[in-house]
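Q: My labmate handed me this sequence with no annotations at all. I'd like to see what the chain might look like in three dimensions before we decide whether it's worth expressing. Could you predict it?
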Amino acid sequence: MTKLVEIENVTVSYREDIALKNVSLGIEEGTFLAVIGPNGAGKTTLLTVINGLGRILSGSVRVFGISLTLRNIGRIRKDIGYIPQNSNIDPRAPISVREVVSIGRTGKIGLFRRQSYKDKKIVEGAMGLVSIDDLADRPIGHLSGGEQQKVAIARALAQQPRILLLDEPTANLDIKSQKELTDLIDRIYKENKLTMVFVTHILSHIPTSCKEAVLMKKGKIVWTGKIGSALQESTLSDLYDYPIEIVDR
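A: Here is what I predict for the chain of 249 residues:
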């Protein structure tokens, strides 16, 4: 299969802090990959590297077979959808759900370009896929946290990305919203076989369709393989430096 992401011996720093240390990773097209690890492990930084951000001190990155350079970042990021942990939307923001989702088309058509009929149909389709059609005209700031995350997913899907990056999308949501969002992400993968990278430190939030895993600790990838093998008591105890007991319910 085609490797969409090829990271070779990459080191990333933020000022004096080393966030990633000689990290190497390949992600094949159609993979649903979970990136698991404690807070501060470098999980979000790994996403920023794939997304063309982060100060790379050494190593190389290729996305879609293209070397990640300043010259190529814009071209690469057109095909990468990114869903952050928090949207931090001002409840007074005078922008509707449909307008937010429409922003997903900007990377494809360019700033200040009028959307075509096709673009508008793509936006409507993205809202339909995540079942927020009925919220289309609502102000984005009036929605719940779970609804706002669905809008963020629709915005990313409207971009028609080849890779979808999800940075702890279920964080700070109530239990019902966590389950709804996890099921939604699961369905999107099953229906589209979109290459997805799902960052989390909460194991119960990992969608069932996710079959591959990367374990990170202190800026390094310490394990890669099938997720069933990753979710073992000894492996997780080493990862979190804490005795983990897995209980079947």
